[in-house]
Amino acid sequence: MKPLSRREALKRSLIGLAGAAAGSSVAQGQVSAIGTHPDAHSLMTRGVPAGAGIDPTAFLRHFDYGVVSKRPNGQTVREYRIIAMDRNLEIMPGLFYSAWTFNGQVPGPTLRVTEGDLVRVHFHNAGTHPHSIHFHGFHPANMDGVFEQIDPGGSFVYEFDAPPFGLQLYHCHTMPLKRHIAKGLYGAMIIDPKRPRPKAHEMVMVMNGFDVNFDGENEVYAVNTVPFAYQATPIVLQRGELNRIYLVNLLEFDLINSLHTHANFFHVFRTGTSHEPSEFTDTISMGQGERHIIEFTYDTLGKFMFHAHQSEFAELGWMGLFDVQGEIA
User: Fold this and answer.
1) Which of 42, 119, 313, 328 has minimal CB crowding within 10 Å?
2) Which of 234, 232, 223 is nearest to 42 (CA)?
3) Cα–Cα distance for residue pair 72/69, rounded to 1 Å
4) 98-153 per-position pLDDT tens digit
5) What is the DSSP secondary structure assignment for residue 101, as one 8-state letter?
6) What whole-number percentage of the chain has pLDDT above 90?
7) Where do the DSSP E strands lie in 162-219?
8) Which DSSP string corresponds to 229-288?
9) Integer CA distances (angstroms), 179 to 11, 99, 205, 254, in order
């Protein structure tokens, strides 16, 4: 019999999780599938291995507004400190990935500013390879992160004004580019418009994956790094409340990623650069680097699945649940 590749082995072990709806059954399934860690069952009680470096539930709603000051002309300045560092991440119990990270996590912190702010990022490379940060959006040529390669131990200060409003992203732009992105050097950046969007329950979802055996293909897929995290701990929504997801695709090695919501449609704000939606749908496909804001409301109670509409991605971890509860307080 032909030996199974690790990709096929992972696929067969994880596929049984795809239809699980209850958090406890998902957690137990993950332990039996890849339960090499002696405390795997306890580690997965919230869907997060101890060494993940990120809590997907907390990451959903954590926005870093930086250290705020004012210039003499009244312009708001937001300062950030970002450190590139090597770190082993336990993305599933007993399954470790040798990542390159911003601030020790994948994705990096979600930076949030307002249109017209001055953004100042103090970057230090504590890793073992040259790195940089390339911000999508507008900035001077010498702040682009392409030619300003920072060697291990070095530092650089990125400074630029923050137009246009919308959902941006940042990532390392060191060659080979696909390796630096696949290893985890990326994050989301939100530039809020001066005219605020309507009040909503806001979340950040960065679609990503991991090539755990370095064969140029992903064996694990996720939103916010930990596969099946939002099945083990469903995302609680309130009936009738407006939800807003900042959705970014930073998956490497696969050309297209997608999001499908069950029993509902959402408004799409392409790249988040408009106050008016461009589409009303239940499935959206995105290439790497694409990002959109989506808005939706659930009017009925219960648990509703969301996942990639590439079935293989869903079976290998890119799947979760919304748990719609109660009335708005």
Assistant:
1) 328
2) 232
3) 10
4) 999 999 999 999 999 999 999 999 999 999 999 999 999 999 999 999 999 999 99
5) E
6) 82
7) 166-171, 186-192, 201-210
8) HHHHSPEEEETT--EEEEEEE---SSSEEEEEETT--EEEEETT--SS-SEEESEEEEET
9) 23, 10, 21, 13
CA angle 178, 119, 208 (to 5 degrees): 30
Question: How large is the C-alpha radius of gyration of the chain?
Answer: 20
Cα–Cα separations (whole angstroms), residue 14 to 220, 258, 293: 9, 20, 30
Q: Give dist(CA 261, CA 248) in Å, integer.
A: 16
What pLDDT, in 10s, does the model give residues 234-249? 999 999 999 999 999 9
**CA–CA gap between residue 294 and residue 309 (Å, rounded):** 16
pTM of the model: 0.88
What is the residue whose two structure tokens read 């073992």?
Answer: 128
The residue count for the chain = 329
What secondary structure does DSSP assign to 117-142, as a single string? PEEEEEEEE-SSS-B--EESS---GG
Instruction: Give residue 1's identity as a one-letter amino acid code.
Output: M
Cα–Cα dist 117/130, whole Å: 29
pLDDT score for 48:
84
pLDDT band for 11, please (50, 70, 90 cuts). Answer: low
Give the SS3 label for residue 13: helix
